[in-house]
Amino acid sequence: MYTQLGHTSMKIARLYLRVSTDEQDLTRQADIVESTRAAGYYVAGVYREKASGARADRPELLRMIADLQPGEVVVAEKIDRISRLPLAEAEQLVSRIRGTGAKLAVPGLVDLPDIAADAEGVAKIVLESVQDLLLKLALQMARDDYESCVEGYEVPQA
Fold it and tell me: pLDDT tens for residues 15-49?
């Protein structure tokens, strides 16, 4: 979102930091706040959560989505911080975020909507298709990683 404050345009971001368990901490992700500010964004909110990414009903995630305004950017350390849900559910979650008019900014995940918006015809279709493919791959890889961790964990026999 570019808000006019006098003569200055402001890019606005909301940061989502998540770890899976109470034993883990968010220290590793704290650099995101400063790097986002250094990139020229006003940080409108930092949402910290200790919950599994395989759940869609995370309170801080839902609060962040409710707070999003058109043009804002959701920043997360990696796509698996946003979701480790099965692909169909992960796509619904991303659709909810984008449905607010916000964009995702996740390192390693190319977001091409600005480029696609300026393109026409076949180029626009290709750019939008590539974006969707990259996002689906990243979401599925996050889910596969989650499933391999869960499957690799064996419960000790009593």
Answer: 999 998 888 888 888 889 999 999 899 999 999 99
- Catalytic (active site) residue 35: no
d(CA 44, CA 12): 6
Considering the candidates 9, 20, 95, 129, report the single residue annotated as catalytic: 20
Q: Print burial letters for 126-151: b (CB count within 10 Å at least 16), e (below 16).
A: ebbeebeebbeebbeebbeebeeeee
Residue partners of 18: CB distance under 8 A and separation at least 6: 26, 48, 49, 50, 51, 53, 58, 60, 61, 76, 81, 82
Query: Does residue 33 contact residue 45 with C-beta atoms inside 8 Å?
Result: no
Q: Which residues pair with 4 in a beta bridge?
A: 9
Given a contact cutoff of 8 angstroms between Cβ atoms, the answer to whether 74 and 103 are in contact is yes
Q: Which domains does the chain have, with CATH numbers?
A: 2-152 (3.40.50.1390)
Its pTM stands at 0.77
